Amino acid sequence: MELFLDALLDALIDGVKMLPFLYLAYLLIEWLERHHGESIEGALAGGGRWGFIPGALLGCVPQCGFSAVASNLYASRVITPGTLLAVFIATSDEAAEPSQWVTLVLLLACKVAFAIVGGWLLDIPLRHVLPHSLYGGYEGHADDVDCHEEHEESSSIFMAALRHTLEIFVFILLFSFIISLLFEGFGEEPITAALSGMGIFQPMLTALVGLVPNCAVSVLLAQLYVQGAISFGSLFAGLTAGAGVGLAVLWRVNPSWKQNLFMTGLLWAVGAATGMLLQLLPL
Question: Residue 149: which pLDDT band, with cuts at 50, 70 and 90?
Fold first, then answer.
């Protein structure tokens, strides 16, 4: 019981510290989506073959809504596969730890850079190599797609931001409690040693975990990194492969399972490869 209470107390302390940060972040996101939602969609859809640049920049905002928007636009052949991949790679979810600002800035900068490179490779050189049935996406025209139908326009942005904050706080509290309980019960050294024993292949596992279409996975990866259980390269791999609910939306709205499977596998491969590359650097 003492072990249980200690883990719960540690999780509560860590979670409460993040509440003001989370609320301000969601307040900004709600305002952007309500007042500039159409402009955001226009930036993604109007980019054409170069849409991966605004896609990478918009995707790095710490939430997972843009990945769902991009999936709908891709399924409607409004954006290219490169733009979709750029949004997926850059998507950061709620993996923002206030005490790790330097790491967070480095993480976002790397994600944007890799997102632009990945989007360019997929849309420029590989566009002439991949079969159309596998490539899909943009065909030179834009359909009228409304990607904001699930927003609660009737409620105030303050209440909407509070609701999102409390929802993610529950995930943070849950994962923080599980991690604290594991470290309290088994000890930090055995767990860290088990993960560290994977060496350069550790990012392959975290990239696979990152594919789970849930915003809470990014919180888990961030907490493991803060605890020292995984490296920066492994954190980057998981968050690069993690597109929030974007993959779930893609599989639901896009009828081509080949395109969906290709994008899912490509996302894992990019996450694992870039994570293993960063694993070799002194970060």
Answer: very low
Residues 192/62, Cβ–Cβ less than 8 Å? no
The position carrying tokens 């490539």 is 135
Q: Which two tokens stand for residue 250?
A: 């893609």
Q: Angle at the Cα of 220 (from 207 to 174), degrees rounded to 5?
A: 150
Q: Would you state the pLDDT for residue 100?
A: 62
- Which residue in 111, 128, 80 sits closest to 263, CA to CA? 80
Residue with tokens 């009228």: 144
How confident is the model at residue 6, as a pLDDT?
76
Q: What is the mean pLDDT of residues 130-148?
A: 61
Residues comprising the chain, all counted: 283
Closest CA to 126 of 55, 49, 70: 49
Q: Angle between the 52-59 and 81-90 helix axes, to the nearest 10 degrees?
A: 20
pLDDT tier at 60, thresholds 50, 70, 90: confident
Residue 142 pLDDT > 50, yes or no?
no
User: If you average pLDDT over residues 93-109, what whole number do you get?
Assistant: 67
